[in-house]
Amino acid sequence: MQHEFLQRGGQFLYAGDSYSLADWVMFGIPMDWTTSFRPGARMAPARIREVSQMGMEWYSPTAQRSLEDLCFYDAGDVDVVIGDVEKTLRRVRQVADVLLADGKRTLAIGGEHLVSLPLIQAAAHRHPDLVVLHFDAHTDLRQEFFGNRLSHATVLRHAYESLRPGHLYQFGIRSGDRDEFAWAAEHIHQYRDEVLEPLRSCLKELQGYPIYITLDIDVMDPAYAPGTGTPEAGGISSLEMLRAIRAMSDLQVVGMDLVEVSPLVDADGRTSVLAAKIIREALLEFRGEGENRSNG
Fold it and tell me: How many domains is the chain partitioned into structurally?
C-alpha cells in the first residue's frame, strides 16, 4: 500500500506483503505530544514490532492458529508532525479513512491514547452504530486537561461525540476525577477495576454491533506492564487481559488500537513483549464474518 502519510519500516511478525488480500491492516502512530507524566510512547510501534520478531512464537496454543495462517498487512507508520497535535491527528484520520474505504479492519499501535480519537471517529463514520470497548486504568473523560481539549486524558469524552448514546463501554477503570465518574454514570457503561467478568456479562448485548476496541496497556497492573506513561496500581493481570481477548472472539470487531506502551521506561522489555502477544492473539481471535471457528 502506498499513502502519502505512511512510511514503511520494520514489520510485525509474519506480516504479509499483499495489501489487497489482507483483512487486517496494521500501522503505527508514533506520537506522544500530550503525555503528561512519562514520555516515550512514540517509540512503541518500532519496539513492539522488534520484539515480535525476536521473542514471540507465531503459533497460539489458545487460538490453535498461527500468524502464518493469516493474511494481514503491516503498512508502516503514520508520518507524524512532531509537536503538532492537530496536524498529526488529521493525518491519522486520512489514513484510517482510506483503509476503511478499502474494506480493511484497522489495528493501530500507539503512541499515546489521543491517537485513538481519529481512529474511532473514522470507524464511527463508516459504521454509524459502532460500539467502543475501552480497556484502561483511567476514565479519559475530561473535557479538557491543563487547558487542552485534545489530550490523552480527554480522548474518550470527545470520541463519545461520534457515537450513539450508550455505545461506549469502559472496563478496568480505577482512576479519574469526580466529574468524570459522575458524567460516566449518566452516559456510558462503566465497570470498575475488573475486566473479564463484566465483559462476559455484556457479550450478549454486544452481538450484532460493529465493535471498536481501544486498549490502553495501563489497564494491566504495573507489575505486568511497568513500561507505560501513567502507571496505576491495582490493575488486572496479563492473563485476564488475554482471556478477555479470547472472550471477544465472536464479536464483530472492525478495528482496534493498543496504546501507551513506553519503551523508554520499560527496562526489561516486558511491556512491549506483552503488547506484541496481545496483538498476536487479537489477530488470531478476531476473525472475519463467516470464518470457521470450529477447528480453532
Answer: 1
